[in-house]
Amino acid sequence: MEEDKLIEILFKTIKLIRLDKNKEARQEFSKLLKFKIQKLETKAAIRKIYELGEASYFTDAHYYIQTINNYLKNSESYLLRLIRQEIMYSSEDYDTKELFIVNKLDLEKSPNDPEFLNFRGLIYLDKGEFEKAIKNIDLALEIQPKNINFIRNRALALVEVGEYDKARKEIQYALALEPDYEKLPADQEYIDSQETIDHQEERFEINEKNIKTLVDWVGNIKYEFVGVLGLFVVILTIVIKVVNVNYTEYSSLTFFELVKYQVGLNIIWLIALMLIIVVLILVSFKERIFPIKQ
């Protein structure tokens, strides 16, 4: 079967790239130019292509892209266009503008191809246009509703818009389809960690806002210092005069009567202090309570 041969070549190429045997990897990769596959029937083949894209991150992606482009100038190959998008996306050497141009050309040659629609969704995801990303991935899922990779990408896009519960449901659905797929548990952990980080950032923003409000409040305290100070001195003088009692004049009072008297004086002292605080607050916010009309 042709796809079995394809998987074998992809496996060898990936292994050689990871072993940093670039010359041998390029020789093995060149065998892919002979394939005339226009549609991949097995998920094993498509996943090997994904894996090749990931492995190419650690090598000279330009060589492989140039090799494919040179071939596509004179011949058509769906397989090579699919491999090209995976290598370009995984490499840091190509920006979203270049990716979008290639994706547009691929969709013109293969309209409504789910892999290229999914790829466009990933480009929008990288650009931060999350709603467009979800829309294009959804189009891919309409064609292949049980494609695990598309489901995982949709979950990733949902995380970016804060829809953590919906993202979890996507991964749970993927697990129901393929319980042994090794990447899905990591996806679940990623969703949980991102939600935790998001909540921490929200709390930090709230605390930061509260601190700013407090600083602004303190900074906006404007009161007539001299007038308030004078008021404080007057009230304090009166209180001292009242509290400064010659207890020898009350020698006839019992101990409990003296305690009651002292408590009464202390209450007067507290009332005076509270009065000063109220005056300070009123004067501080006089512009808010009694706004000056321009």
List keywords for this structure.
294 residues, mainly alpha, Serine Threonine Protein Phosphatase 5, Tetratricopeptide repeat, 2 domains
Account of the 3D structure:
This protein is mainly α. The protein folds into 2 domains: 2-204, Alpha Horseshoe (Serine Threonine Protein Phosphatase 5, Tetratricopeptide repeat); 222-289. Helix content is 76%, strand content 0%. The chain has 14 helices and no strands. It is rod-shaped and about 120 Å long. The termini are far apart. The model is unreliable at 289-294 (pLDDT under 50).
Number of strands: 0
Largest beta sheet, briefly? none
Any low-confidence stretches, pLDDT <50, length ≥5? 289-294
The CATH homologous superfamily of the largest domain is named Tetratricopeptide repeat domain
Oligomer kind: single chain
Strand proportion: under 5%
Rg for CA atoms: 37 Å
Number of domains: 2
Average pLDDT reading: 82
CATH architecture grouping of the largest domain: Alpha Horseshoe
Described by the principal axes of the CA atoms, the overall outline is rod-shaped
Helix percent band:
over 70%
The helix count comes to 14
Structural class: mainly alpha
CATH topology of the largest domain: Serine Threonine Protein Phosphatase 5, Tetratricopeptide repeat
SSE sequence, one letter per element: HHHHHHHHHHHHHH
Through-space gap between termini: 88 Å
Please write the CATH class name of the largest domain: Mainly Alpha
